[in-house]
Give the backbone structure.
Amino acid sequence: MSIVVEQKEALDARIAPLLARAQALYEDLDLRAVQAWKSEDPSRRAIGFLPVYAPREVVHAAGALPVGIVGGGDQVEIVRGDSYFQSYICHLPRSVVELAVSGRLAPLDGFLFPSTCDVIRNLSGMFQILLPGKFVHYLDLPQNFDRRLGGEFYQHEMRTVAREVGKLTGIEVSDERLRASIVAWNANRAALRELRALRSERPWLVPTAEHYLVLRAGYLLPVEEHTRFVRDYLAAVRASARHPLDNIRVLVRGAFCEQPPVALLRTLERAGCYVVDDDFLQGAHLIPNDVREDGDPWEALSDAFLHGTVPTASIYDEKAEKGDALVRRVREQRVDGVILMAPSFCDPALLDQPMLQAALEKAKIPFTSFKYAEDTGQFQVIREQAGTFADAIKLWGSA
Amino acid sequence: MSTTFVNLSSAEERRAAANAIKDQSQERQKELIAGYFSSLAQAKANGKKVIYTFVPGNLTELIANFDLLPVLPEINALQNGMRGRTGDFIHLAEKGGHSEDVCTYVKADIGMLRSGNVGPTGEPLPKPDALLLSYTGCFTFLKWFELLRAEYDCPVIMLHTPYQGSGQITPAMREYVVKQLREVVIPKLEEISGKRYDEEKLKAALARSARAEEDLVGVLESAKCKPSPIDAYFGGVYYIGPIFTAFRGTQEAVDYYQLLRREVEERAAKKLGPVTPEGALEHERYRLVVEGPPNWTSFREFWKMFYGEGAVVVASSYTKVGGLYDRGFRHDASRPLESLADYCMGCYTNLSLPDRIDLLARYIEDYEADGFLINSVKSCNSFSSGQLLILRELERRTGRAGGFIESDLVDPRYFSAANIKNRLESYFQMIEAKRQRV
Ligand code: SF4
Ligand code: SF4
């Protein structure tokens, strides 16, 4: 065995345990990790939040663990969930209800339902009925981006969350506590920015499915631990001997809420696409840049939401800039083409698509589009479509 | 009911009386709506500016304050649906890249636009001078106007209306909406219209709104009589027409609802059933509460499946999407902007799911319904998502027969007459079976 190969195996051995951990967390639908964290101190509480975005800093500052709930993917057998939803409603709420009624969300002491869409909105009411006695809060994120209007309203919303979660933990959220949480999340944001930059620069080092799993681990782990985890992963892949393939560079939009199965992400890569930018688990990187650490922390968080988010379908595009922003992103990321993949029956994503398509067409950027569900099990068609897209770009520079 | 009871001897006499009554208010309603569409067609020629906006939480009195005309894309879509035009429009929108999965109101509108923007009455619709995104009870509104903004070069005025997630309107929510009205909506409307905001004028309009609302409640609550003189769903959609659209706050609306209420009270006094397309319903066999919007493309056929069996809808949630007046809300001239804010947040689709269930349960009791039925429309996540839990909860709480049917608003592909008829027949049998057991 040559030294190079030996070294490669040794280095990959650094990545393997990290990935095994991320995979285990991904599969941890019973929230054993949350249970374990809580068992260290009986006063600990955990709060689930639905897609897309919730200010986790506030939950953290109130002494609770924010836990992302993004459905059951392809890992949950839907026994009762389907009986709550008509066939023309997306898949995510079925698996969420399945998790709830089967008791797998029991380690959570409360839930935040951000104002993402009508399905999640109504799901907040369903939870009030299905899990009586649990703290269930509909979190109205502002669609007015004036600091004095939407900003003030949002700060009030955040303070309500802080107060309610604080009642569960017995901790009052002071400005100091909130500032410390912002600092913790800024560190996390910095690590994620580095990860994304590396993926964009050398996508062969950070395969899409791995990137996803690493991000997803942050939906279960305490933030400080997740930041370390991301940094460990970065160090491991940087030192790895992974080498580039003849893949095209693509950007994905539309997958901000219901998540595609990880196998679908692998399929894209096998079909010849490096995903160098995406909106999977959008809540984890909706605010990519640091939140101000000085001054009033409530205001800082509010400002970050009002003016620091990347465009996404659930937030009103006040300045009509999402098309231009997408084209700009394509250029910045030196992307060969765009994949518009959206969950079936997702009004926000699917109504956004024609607007994004128009911008791409105008800028002569190749794109392809398809729908998926979190439990999609057949990838042949998607593989062929993505493969043809990649081949066309490689051959002619356009799809 | 104040009118005296008159006993009509023969069925013919009863039918004749019923139809005579039908004519006056229905004719007036038709005139109002037709007049509205012609005023839109002539808007530009008359130098009128036009605001596109949505029905739930609409700010009709405020729009009128600036002599602007409202265009309601949902109403265009449903009117086009009733006239059988939406199938082609939807097809056109889908050909242009819209998904088959999404709300068909949006696609019907986009398709109409692509076909030259000729409105349901065959008259052209004016382009908007602004899109007033009063965003109550539905996230799709947001996308809809983003899409329209890409078509028209005009400003969008966003009014973010918080959702009653905790089952109430909090002071912070009210303050947020009032501030937006004062600092965003009014200044923008002033700019577009070139006119100053006139609060006295608004107060007068709101006082008229309240009068019409009072009479509308009288009409809707007449369904507590047995037999019910109205159908509060199929007939109800005609009754809500003027007040949910361009006429709230006008004298025409006040007069129309007075007339309608008088007629309905007369019908109640005479123990007449509701007016149907085939005359008055003679035997009320089933009293139902219905949740969800109707289907528009086969509206008559759908209605007939009910009145053909003697089923009368005594209360419905759909007739509350433009205001929940029967829970006591009235526009209030003494607190104009606050009351507009409360109105915006108080519409049915802005209620939490538990609150919707409470309301429906109360309807079932108060209107002494035999059962309730959900028409779940594919288009509308705002209405439909969670309806199966509503069904379960209502069955559990009221013990009455619950039915569930599926269709769509304006996409004819999703109206399966045979299927719905079958389900309804089984549903009526279920009510019969329950009765026998009692
Ligand atoms: S997938 Fe789309 S429709 Fe479904 S819950 Fe998420 S945002 Fe809403
Ligand atoms: S989703 Fe429902 S409320 Fe929203 S526009 Fe469509 S039909 Fe109307």
Notes: The longest strand of chain B covers residues 371-377. The beta strands of chain B are 50-53, 69-71, 130-135, 156-160, 275-276, 279-280, 286-291, 311-316, 371-377, 401-407. The CA atoms of residues 86 and 138 of chain B lie 21 Å apart. The pocket of iron/sulfur cluster (ligand 1) is lined by residues A 51, 90, 92-93, 116-117, 119-120, 257-258, 343, 346-349 (CB under 6 Å).
